[in-house]
Write a structure and sequence with these properties.
heterotrimer, A alpha/beta, B alpha/beta, C alpha/beta, A: alpha/beta, ten-stranded mixed beta sheet, C: about 20% helix, about 40% strand, globular
Chain lengths: ~500, ~260, ~425
Amino acid sequence: MPAVTETREAVEKLGQSSYKWGFETEIDMDLAPKGLNEDTIRLISARKEEPEWLLEWRLSAYRAWLTMAEPKWAKVSYPPIDYQDLHYYAAPKKKPGPKSLEEVDPELLRTYEKLGIPLHEQALLAGVELPEGEVARTPVAVDAVFDSVSVVTTFRKTLEEAGVIFCPISEAVKDHPELVRKYLGTVVPAGDNFYAALNSAVFTDGSFVYVPKGVRCPMELSTYFRINARNTGQFERTLIVVEDGAYVSYLEGCTAPMRDENQLHAAVVELVAMEDASIKYSTVQNWYPGDENGRGGIYNFVTKRGACRGARSKISWTQVETGSAITWKYPSCILQGEGSVGEFYSVAVTNNHQQADTGTKMIHIGRNTRSTIIAKTISAGQSDSTYRGLVRVLPKASGARNFTQCDSLLIGDQCGAHTVPYIENRNMAARIEHEATTSKISEDQLFYCRQRGLSEEDAVGLIVNGFCRDVLKELPMEFAVEAQKLLQISLEGSVG
Amino acid sequence: MTQFLEISGLCARIDADGQEKEILRGVDLTIPPGEVHAIMGPNGCGKSTLSYVLAGREEYEVTAGSVQFHGQDLLAMEPEERAAAGLFLAFQSPIELPGVNNANFLRTAVNAVRRARGQEELDAVAFLKAAREAAKSLSMAPDMLKRNVNVGFSGGEKKRNEVLQMTLLQPSFAILDETDSGLDVDALRIVAEGVNRMRSPEFSALVITHHKRLLDYLKPDRIHVMAKGRIIHSGGPELAEQIDTEGYTRFLAEAA
Amino acid sequence: MNAITKNPKATLQSFEARFDTITDQTRKAALGALHRVGLPDRRVEEWKYTGLRFLTETPFAAPAQTYDAAQVQAELDRLGVTHGPAEALPRLVFVNGLYSAEFSRKPASAEVSFFAQTKSFGVQACPDRDPLTALNTTLAQDGVTLSVPENGDAGHVLLISIGQADAPVSFHPRHAVALAEGAKLSLTCIQAGQGRYLHNPVLEVSVAARAELQHVTVQAESDDAASLATLYAQVDEHGSYNSFVLGLGAALARHEVHATLAASHAQVHVNGAQRLRARQHGDLTSVITHAAPDCISRQTVRNVLDGQSRGVFQGKVLVERIAQKTDGYQMNQALLLSEQAEIDAKPELEIYADDVKCSHGATVGALDEDQMFYLRSRGVPYAEARQILIHAFLEEALALIPDETARALCSHIMAQRFPVSGEEA
């Protein structure tokens, strides 16, 4: 199979050079001392000028965490993490939470420009009146989170006029305490699992979104996460609440510098959709994956969960996971409202020594709830990738439907691709269908493309993109292009 | 003078379940520019293998012989280099590419070939215009360009799609491997017209078929009979008629 | 096995009294493993859906050497092995795990020996990894070893286990089947009984090059019993192991298969069906390991669950790095007939070779309403229409059994528990 051999070699050639986001930014940091104890948590809470109830909530999460063990059921392996050898608070040494771009350290802005996130241009666009008839390209409101702190949020004015709240969660705690208190931890309880408990104890920032009744959020909301500082963990917390009949589309992107050490990222995302509400949550995860020998890279241990509380509500997760040394992540839907809908669309690409154990949980509680799972797994190099997904139908969920399709593609004979679905049904009037396939790129397809004049790398790129199409088409336009490029870079490298 | 396509003493084998199987046993065939030749022969005689070997499929090992194409050593080239050099294979069973948009695939292929030939790439507008025209001339439904490559296509649609690709890639030499199989009378005529439109002093074709019907439309210059991995008889267009009525028995007996 | 249980020894109390006399090294090692980790609970991934509380509720005594022959005879009659096409077949009958010469008729063309004499533990079983195998190793008393010589055809042999328990007993037979190169055997294992007991067999199967084993298991144990069976199979080049398990009985059942395709062009079929009712818990678990290239594995499992029963299917297909050109297919389907029934399925692919074709599918649902309506519109009453469709669903699975007599025995035993027409027994 020389055709595949060459592809494999091309893939193997990929080293750290292909990670284009691996630079470091020189910025004065305000670091909490290493280690985790109640004093650290008090310090974080104090820096954030938090109310007493939140400090108490954090402390109870911390106490719960102390009694918990790291989950071991995922198909990933890594040396023990010393949780006392990390900084739990790192913030750029300026006043946190600037109100406008002028207050932001220009070095930071340059960082985001390098990442291709045009905060400046877009913020300006927002403030400047456009001539009659001229349409700006689809605006995207951005919240940029640098290490643990939100540095800038754009478009806030336009959003405010529509009644939409989009701000760092640390600010929401001060400005909208009733909302935060009402919903925080109601989808992912503080003691939900080891990493969620850790996050609840030490989270420093993240985004907060509130879309009031009947409002269709006028633009895509987006958060870019960047880990910069050394020996820090990043623990952001995102909370999105969408009221009756409202809609929001939220995008999330992430990068980190190349470092020899492993860095911990343990985020929590909570979504709440009320009656007829709809949330579309898209992620392009491109944390540093480590080098070709498996040195360095982010440990991405994330808990994401959405609650479809109202009837006919809908939560749709789309993720393109190309980065991180280890990914442990199961964006889930609790389908409580009658006729509510959960969707999970995922592309996970692993190369070199990356390990990914990702999937979803669809918990059908209400009648006539529906869920769809489309997961595409691509493994190359010496990586291991697992789809792990749960579909649970409870006794009251009559008329529940699930369809799951998992496909894996292996590139090279040193990698692994695994599919572990859990199907638990306690309702006779529910219907569940699951299909999975594992294969390699067929010689026939490669030859067909090459006979038509495509190079082998282009043919692989075309076929892989075709393989992922059902997922990529769920992404908003801006992200779909970026995601396609990422797939090519993650796998092909030598193209062009 | 070098011929346009010159196959001499070509032998090839395939590894089937751990056993070497000799399929081509010394094929000699010359096709001058501007001519259409046909190969006929019983099942398993090596016709499709010949087309795969010419297009560069890696499962087949060439053990002897040579192929000159435009004065170049064809066998030394990668499949995509052969495509760029002007060789086109219309597959007997066109391959499905799930998730890959037909128009996008065609444009990628056309531009890859144009790039390799030193021609300017086509922009999206120019390409779509050309593709729509070509599709129309083959009586293809307009939505076929939007669908995934060959996925869910009927047998006839797949064959038309092959001819569409040929029309856009503008090869100087096309191999049509049983392009007529599975086509009804109307579709056969449309496909044959598509091939005939390509005919010019710079275009040659090798048509592999079992049936005279396609040859009635294409009017080949020469017909070759292939059996047991070799060309055992060659003649003019009248040969098709003879095979249609008598079968291959006489040629096989003569060769034996 | 990792210790998860806080007090491993406590999980073994029901058997503790019988551990004192153990001196054999193999048994001691197995007991050591058991004592280290105990019987698994739900926190062990492989036991996520099946609990073993049954084993800790009452002490299980060792079985007596004597038995009630009239009851054994009645049981054999009921199973349909003493009349009809199965009557003439050689059979090996074990009562409470001990060989009964009186009811047995040894096969002519296979060698037969007994564990009670040979004390041979075999080579494939993993007491270190599998706790139920460890329990078996610790307490095994008897069992049969069937060997078919090179190119021999041993025909169809029945291996029957009858449980008889006035007070709770447990028996842990250790069986083995070895087919030499080119040998053939059709083996049908039938398990039945009365009273509260634990049947905990281990069966090692080895199929040499070009040999063919057809293996059907009908588990129709007492409704008060637990049936916890572990089967190891190893298949050599061009060998074929074609198995089917039909789960009908027991309060708690687990049929666990570890099949390894050890050399190229080997084939395994690990098919099965379960039909459960009341509070029955039935678990079909399998791990099919492709350890060589060019092998084929097939698995079709169907569940029909009524009452408050719970069906479990865990099927892992593991394709090792070396196993290129693997062709694996797995399908698991479940039909829920009652609002309290539950199915838990975990079909799993673990793949390390790139040139493979593996797929699995799972569907869960109720009876097809369109089909029900169609039958009723043709005048078939509701209850009967339901039975027809259930029967058809399971018959499709039974059709995978190549041996006609074995298939007929399955249908017969199933029809006894679930009469095809009219109300369920």
